[in-house]
Amino acid sequence: MRAPVRALLGRRARLRWVHLILGGALLMPYWLLGTLVVAPFAGGDGMFSGSPAAQFGAYAVALPLAAVTALFPLARPMSVAAARTLCGVPADRFADGPARSRAARARTAGWFTLHVGLGGLVSGASLALPPFAVSVMALPFSAALRESELERFWALDQRWLVYGGVPAGLAMLAALAAVAAGAGALLARRAPLLLGPTPADRLAAAERRAEELAVRDRLARELHDSVGHALSAVTLQAGAARKVLDSDPRFVREALGAIEETARRTVGELDAVLGLLRRGEEDAELPGRPGLEALDALLAATGRHVSLSVRDGDVTGVPEAVSREAYRIVQEGLTNAARHAGGEPVSVTVGRDGDALEITMENPLPARPPVARPGGGRGLRGIGERARLLGGTAEARPVDGVWRLAARLPLRGAAR
Pick from 197, 228, 253: which residue ends a domain? Predict the structure, then answer.
């Protein structure tokens, strides 16, 4: 017994009933306009005729008008807000944002028409039936009521009025609750179909997620390259200074200065990236990212064992996007060399080759293979990703006793 009562009068059923009443309220302007249309055909009764034909004629005119107004894009967010709160449907099954495509607008119009159509009928019944049912339930207890128009309306004898009034009134109220519950359940079943995401909405959502993931990957790559290089450089400089602490104070001072400069620069880059994460920024560019003009400072902070040569003597005029990614590739190459071949000399060659920028880094292979980190590193993979984003290539492998990292970045078509 409890389950049927909860289905008819429980919290979910009551909320859906409120949703239907809201639909009836939304129908009223259209229904009033419909009464103007059917008034010339209502005979002498006027626009507010009480005849069922006039009332349902206005209702039939109101529904197409409601469907037309629901074709506007902003109709979907308003319908979703009401349905998400009152229909008892999981929120993730609704679409977000205005209806942009033709299919989405058509579905929204169908939903709105169904909502106001059922809502108008249930609202009318909710206004008219309870007073009538209460009057019928009062018949056994009121001779005046039994002698009123109700008796002539039902055309029944006094015995039925005495013994059947209360059950008939309760049956009417139960029927109203059942109809409201059924209409609310019908709306709840149709809501995901009519207010849910269309294929175009799903495609747009997938594109947004892909863009967000690309931004996260880019920020993660920036943090890895910047902070990872800084830690490797600081570790290398600190270890070298510790070994010659007593014998070469000048080198120790230079190493400490390099550590200070590396830490200061990295803290600035870290603040910029974390600032973007805090703001939820999705701009394609990070402010203050260094380019090829900062290579000298990068190599100086790395140590004396790194040499730089620039083919043809000049790499000015390189597009900013290429310059920034080239800097990060060199930075990650130096980090890789410091981590796996610490102390070995590293040569860096940068130069133009036609319409591309070429970067070559070489260092002798260590006598003892380095110990691999658990899970492997991400630096070389990040270099390949940076090169591919610009339409270029990158590879790193041993060649004739040296470890060679070679990257080729196209200059044409690169974003500035």
Answer: 197
Structure confidence at residue 51 as a pLDDT band (50, 70, 90): confident
For the beta sheet containing 356-364, the strands, ordered from the edge strand earlier in sequence to the opposite edge, are: 306-310, 346-353, 356-364, 402-410, 393-399
Task: Report if residue 32 sits inside a domain.
Answer: yes
For the chain, give the number of residues: 416
Residues 353 and 254 in one domain: yes
Neighbouring C-beta atoms of residue 285, cutoff 10 Å: 13
pLDDT digits (tens, 9 = 90+) for 127-185: 999 998 888 888 777 767 666 655 555 555 555 556 677 888 899 999 999 999 999 99
Give the count of domains, the chain.
2
Please enumerate in sequence order all residues whose Cβ is within 8 A of that of 326, keeping only pairs 6 or more positions apart, or say none.
Answer: 291, 292, 318, 350, 357, 359, 407, 409
Look-up of token digits 């995901």: 192
Residue 316 domain-assigned (yes or no): yes
Same-domain pairing of 101 and 147: yes
Contact 180, 13 (CB under 8 A): yes
Backbone angles phi, psi at 356, to 5 degrees: -140, 155
| Tens digit of each residue's pLDDT (9 = 90 or more) over 194-207 | 999 988 888 877 88
State residue 398 phi and psi, 5-degree precision.
-75, 135
Three-state DSSP state, 408 = strand
How many whole angstroms separate alpha carbon 277 and alpha carbon 283? 11
Asked, for residue 416, whether it belongs to a domain, the answer is no
